[in-house]
Amino acid sequence: MVTPNPFGTEEENMQKLKEELKAWKERVVEAENLKGDLLFSNACAEEECANAQEELMKLKGWQENDQKDSIIYRDNLEDQLHQLYRENTELKKDIEKLEKELEELSSVQARSTQIQKKVAGMKLKFSHMEGMSNCADVDTRCVFDANVKIPFRLNQNQALLTFEDEEVAQRLIKKGKHTVNLDNNKVDVRVLPVPLDMGVKFELHVTVSGRKINVSNIPELPIPEDWMRDKLELNFYKTQKGGGGEIENVTYDSESRRAVITFLRPGASNSFWGSPKYPFFANGRCYTLFVSSHADLRLKNCQPYCGVSKKTILLKGIQEVEEDEESIQDMIEIHFQKPSNGGGEIENIKYISKGAAYVCFEEDTGSAI
């Protein structure tokens, strides 16, 4: 009996070894493939990591630039804010300065207005009547041309000369410098044009009411205002005593002690013309009221103007001499009246040796008065 070989035959063993070797080779190939895949994946990952780091560095650079830009922007805003603050402070100072100047100008203007009211005045010239009809019971309307005189300040050692012919004044101004004999002293004076401040001319439209009258000097009585209105209405209603008849309205001001009476009948106010005093009976006494026409004044066609006087010259540089002011003025007038000196007939002359004075001009003539 033959005993079997537990390990098989040698050929079988060789066959098994070949199969195992083949299996291992296949595994090695798979491992190599896997290794290649892993190496490729690793390379891709490293590339992505490098790209990510590069992007991160870019982002950091951008962030730093943004921070720098934001810092620069913030610094610029702060500089602009400080600049605006400084400009605002300067503007406030300028505003305060302008307000002070405006206040000073207002005070100067107020003083100038007071001087103008006192010195200059206003020239009124009747122009025409408006809305005239044959009925005597309507309002009376008339128009006046008003021309405000222009004040001019004449300072110390200065003179104003107004000539009849404006060509004489313009010829003297064109020459400029003149030598005048004052008290045997030759004095060089300058001849200048006279610039005028702004003046105003306008139309004054006056409407005298045919139904209203003004009443003043109303006595103070210990009665309510509505009672006083009733008494005034009753007093001026009485036609048999010179009243105006039925009354439409009575406006009474207790502080000024004045009233405006409005009658129903047109032309009723004509009854009081020429009679400024009117009796008023109250509390057993007779008082005297003052009655005047009720006029409405309106300014129209107001036209400001300014310029240079064509007929008047201003002399400057007149030196002080021993002669009195009137004598110096006569010497100046004699000099500029002579045609040999380029002068002519003088309408008016004003010389100031000390202080100052205001001389007024009229727009229509350009003459000093």
Automatic annotation (TrEMBL):
Q: What InterPro entries is this protein classified in?
A: Nmi/IFP35_dom, Nmi/IFP35_N, Nucleotide-bd_a/b_plait_sf
Q: Name one Pfam family in it.
A: IFP_35_N
Q: Where is the NID domain?
A: 159-248, 259-348
Please state every residue range assigned to the domain named Nmi/IFP.
Answer: 81-156
One cellular component (GO) term of this entry? nucleus
Q: Where in or outside the cell? A: Cytoplasm; Nucleus; Secreted
**Biological process (GO) annotations?**
innate immune response
Please state which protein family the record places this protein in.
Belongs to the NMI family.
Q: What is this protein called?
A: N-myc-interactor isoform X2
